[in-house]
Amino acid sequence: MLTIKKEMWGVALSAVVALLVVKISLLLYRWSNHSRAGKLPSGSMGFPVIGETVEFSKPYSFDEIPSFDRKRMSKHGSLFRTSIIGSKTIVSTDPEVNFEIFKQDNKCFIMSYPEALVRIFGKDNLFFKQGKDFHRYMRQIALQLLGPDKYIHEIDLATREHLNSDSSQSVLDVKDAVGRLILEQMIQMIISDIKPENKNKLIENFRDFSFDLVRSPFDPSFWKALYNGLMVRSLDVHTIRCIVSKNTFKPNENSRKICKAT
Questions:
Q1: Model confidence over 133-159: pLDDT tens digits?
Q2: C-alpha angle 15-19-22 in degrees, rounded to nearest 5
Q3: Its family (predicted)?
Q4: In angstroms, rounded to a whole number, what is the distance separating the alpha carbons of residues 79 and 108?
Q5: Are 61 and 93 in the same domain?
Q6: 3 state DSSP class of 66
Q7: Packing angle between helix 174-190 and helix 196-207, nearest 10 degrees?
Q8: Most buried of the four, 119, 196, 223, 233, by CB within 10 Å?
């Protein structure tokens, strides 16, 4: 009698395990072959939730095509589907398709950004706003502000000053010098009457920003970059608020307390 019961329990357990295996296999199949209205391009979805984030986030040289794109282009063509950080994604490496997408101006495609960048810059940041004519309007402002004919003389003078000040150094880091020059000019254009010490503070904060945020959240450097980015944002917002409050209102006890806080 005991032997029969054990055999029955064994059969039942085997049936449950078999059902679970079938169910998981169906879920994996549906994940890899997701279908909606219309036909999606070929590709692979990787593991559930994680997708192909780890391989997508692998570093690569500036002058080479990422191995993630190269492998899938050779297998699926210039348009393929994948999953990045749990988000179903279609990747386009076709210049003509990309050009048409950019021409749409948010009519058929909505621009989006990684959640980590949104947290650092704030959801109300101008670059994250959506709208039919918003990005066109932002481009017009940028062209008016940074038009080459308008500021070529100032940029030329600033470049000469930087070269003269750095000429005494035995080694010149061109990338570092150009980055600092661009930040100085941008800050000066946006906040014309900023003090040198405030400008230097903003420059150092911007330079502490790390693009490790575009890596996988499973990479430890991602969380370090996220923390540093949030701290840099807090310092920049504090500095800009102090500058605006000093230039707009008469200094009082409350504004002095705010500007002294860290």
A1: 666 777 777 777 666 666 777 777 778
A2: 140
A3: Belongs to the cytochrome P450 family.
A4: 17
A5: yes
A6: coil
A7: 130
A8: 233
Tokens of residue 228, six digits: 């540093």
Count of structural domains within the chain: 4
Amino acid identity at 8: M
Amino acid sitting at position 181: L
Helix or strand run (H / E) with residue 69: helix 67-76
Backbone torsions φ then ψ of 97, nearest 5 degrees: -65, -45
Domain carrying residue 248? 196-262
Would you call 52 exposed, middle or buried from its count of C-beta atoms within 10 A (0-12, 13-18, 19+)?
buried
- Residue 214 confidence (pLDDT) above 50: yes
User: Which letter does DSSP use for residue 41 in this model?
Assistant: P
| Alpha carbons 32 and 109: distance in angstroms, whole number | 23
- 3-state SS, residue 50: coil
Query: Quick one: tokens of 211?
Result: 């693009």
pTM of the predicted structure, to 2 decimals: 0.46
Q: For strand 87-92 and strand 79-84, is the pairing parallel, antiparallel, or unpaired? A: antiparallel
165 and 201 assigned to the same domain? no
Position 256, amino acid: R
- Pair 200, 261 in one domain: yes
Give me the percent of the chain exceeding a pLDDT of 90: 0
Write the DSSP assignment of 116-158 as a string of letters. HHHHHH-TT-GGG---TTHHHHHHHHHHHHH-HHHHHHHHHHH
Residue 70 in any domain: the answer is yes
Q: Looking at residue 212, what is its pLDDT?
A: 58
From the centroid of its chain, how far is CA 216?
Answer: 11
CB-CB neighbours of 81 under 10 Å? 19
Q: How far apart are alpha carbons 111 and 171 in whole angstroms?
A: 42
In a domain, 23, yes or no: no
